[in-house]
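Late entry, written up from scratch paper. The run itself happened at the end of the previous shift, but nothing got recorded in the book at the time, so transcribing now.
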Amino acid sequence: MTQLIGISGSLRKSSLNTALLRSIDELMPKGATLSIASIEAIPLYNGDLDIEGGPPSVQALKAQIGDADGLLFATPEYNFSIPGVLKNAIDWASRPGFQSVLAHKPVAIIGAAPGAVGTARAQGHLKQVLLGTLSEVFPYPEVLVSKAHERIQNGQLADEPTREVLRKMLEAYVSWIRRMG
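Output as recorded:
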C-alpha cells in the first residue's frame, strides 16, 4: 500500500486547494491512499522553539510526513508565489537541515486558483524551495487547475476533464514512488 500525505497551502474553510485534495480519494490508483494533514496549528518558525523536534504540532506533522511514502502539496498562488503558511510549515519540517523528514521524500505539487494561469508561478517557487530541502520533486505531469472556482463545486472537483488529468498525474506519481522504493 502506497500512503500519501496531502498538505493544502490554504487555511480557508472553503479553500479550493483543500477541496482539490479532498477530491483525490476517489481518483487514487489501486493500492494507494491519501490522508490530509493540517498545518493550521503550526506556529511561526522560531529557532528558539526548535528544540527536540519543535512544538507538539510540528512533531505531529513531521511524524505524518515521515511515515508517508510520498507527499502531495496543493498550493494556491499569493502574489505570484506560495502562501506564507505553507513556506512556514516547510521551514519547520525541513529541520534539522539536510536530515529532515523531507530529505529524499518523493513530493508532488498541484494547485488551484481562479485565474487563467492556475498556480504556475507558485508551483515554480515551491519546487525551488523543495529542492533546498533535498526533496525528490515529481517532474511531470503537472496539474495547474485554472478557473478553479468554476471547476470545483460544493467542495468537490466537478470538472471531468480536470478529474482525468489529475487521475493520470496520480497514477504517474504513485508509479514513480514505487519505482523509487
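DSSP finds six helices and eight strands in the chain.
(Scratch paper discarded after transcription.)
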